[in-house]
Design a protein that fits this description.
The protein is of the alpha+beta class and about 190 residues long. It folds into two domains: about 50 residues; about 120 residues, Arc Repressor Mutant, subunit A, CATH 1.10.10. The protein contains nine helices and six strands. The protein has a two-stranded antiparallel ribbon. It has a two-stranded antiparallel ribbon with strand order 3-4. A two-stranded antiparallel ribbon has the order 5-6. A hairpin with a 2-residue loop joins strand 3 and strand 4. Helix 3 crosses helix 5 and helix 5 crosses helix 9. It is elongated. The termini are far apart.
Length: about 190
């Protein structure tokens, strides 16, 4: 390597909030550091890059994901593109999520509610939904249940799927991380990817 430049210090974000700071003097030492991090499952975080290393080497570009709610949910849950509608699970019309086969949830009404909340948050990029708005959305789905929505929300909060503080501070419904994981698991099970 020529002496066109000199390396001194490198900052590599490996996890959100975790940055490795290392002194390196050559590109070879930088490559060795990156290889060591990858070997320990701490590959550097790369913002905005969706292509694989193989595609990058071959000069291929990944297609840009459509900016629509169903695609956002599929990407977030790592589902096959188009699977939400092709398997008749969930669709959006005029910015409103709709369960295509409410009967597929059977008596698992809590799962249907979690999927609807996830559709609002991920698909519509909303941090939360007001209780009254969600009530209208929920009731429009044609779900058959004897459990009042207020009781269902209480059960979801008690199970740790809904953020208690958001609800307490303004009757806003918002999934916790556990709730989001549950929504993804439900969608995968409905599609048959579980």
């Amino acid at each position: 390597m020529s002496d066109k430049y000199s390396l001194k210090e490198v900052h590599i974000e490996v996890l959100p909030g975790v940055t490795v700071i290392a002194d390196v003097s050559t590109v070879d030492s930088l490559v060795a550091l990156l290889n060591d991090l990858r070997a320990r499952n701490m590959a550097p975080k790369v913002e905005g890059r969706k292509e694989t290393d193989e595609n990058h080497r071959q000069g291929k570009k990944q297609p840009v994901a459509e900016d629509n709610p169903a695609v956002r949910i599929e990407v977030n849950a790592e589902l096959e593109k188009g699977s939400l509608t092709s398997k008749n699970i969930l669709a959006f019309k005029d910015g409103i999520p709709q369960l295509l086969r409410p009967s597929a949830f059977g008596k698992r009404i809590t799962e249907a509610a979690i999927v609807l909340i996830h559709a609002v948050e991920t698909g519509l990029k909303s941090q939360s939904i007001e209780y009254e708005q969600f009530k209208g959305l929920y009731e429009s789905q044609g779900l058959k249940t004897n459990t009042p929505l207020a009781m269902l929300m209480t059960n979801l909060r008690a199970s740790g799927y809904l953020d208690k503080n958001s609800y307490r501070e303004g009757r806003k419904i918002r999934l916790t991380a556990k709730g989001e994981r549950k929504a993804i698991d439900i969608l995968k099970a409905q599609i048959g990817q579980a």
